Amino acid sequence: MSYKQISGCFSTLNRKADKELNYQYSKLSNSLDLENRKNLVAAQRLWVKFRDADCTFYEPRKESDNLVSSSHSICLTRRTLDRLEQLESYNFRKGCNGCAW
Fold first, then answer.
1. Is the pLDDT of residue 36 over 70?
2. Which sign, positive or negative, has the C-alpha torsion 85, 16, 63, 44?
3. Which of 13, 26, 39, 83, by CA, is between 20 and 30 Å from 46?
4. How far is CA 20 from CA 40, 44, 53, 80, in A?
5. Residue 18 lies in a domain
6. Is residue 96 part of a domain?
7. Average pLDDT of the residues in 21-37
8. CA–CA separation, 78 vs 84, rounded Å?
9. Which domain holds residue 62?
């Protein structure tokens, strides 16, 4: 499999994960009171900055070769799946004892 194919696969997976992440985020946001919704928005904005900075660190080269593109796609996908897992966990535990909200 070529680097271009790998990058394409991860880009497709990332789009699907991002769509599910947005769904889980909306679901969680809609279940929160105003104060905690603001906290979630702030956390999500910082997470996006972290994800982007972390993936730039992960693959700092500026060349436009396929290896760089593949590495960046892989990083974005991994970070998105990590965050998706967190949001799903928050949604699963809504209303439990010990939750932040």
1. yes
2. negative
3. 13
4. 17, 15, 22, 10
5. yes
6. no
7. 94
8. 10
9. 3-85
Give the pLDDT of residue 98.
47
Greater confidence, 47 or 100?
Answer: 47
User: What is the greatest pairwise CA distance in the chain?
Assistant: 50
Q: Is residue 100 part of a domain?
A: no
Average of pLDDT values for 61-86? 81
* Structural domain count of the chain: 1
Residue 42 is assigned to a structural domain of this protein = yes
Question: CB within 8 A of 87, min separation 6: which ones?
Answer: 21, 24, 25, 28
Mean pLDDT over each residue of the chain, to the nearest integer: 85
**CATH number for position 7:** 1.20.1270.180
Spatial separation of the C-alpha atoms in residues 37 and 33, rounded to whole Å: 6
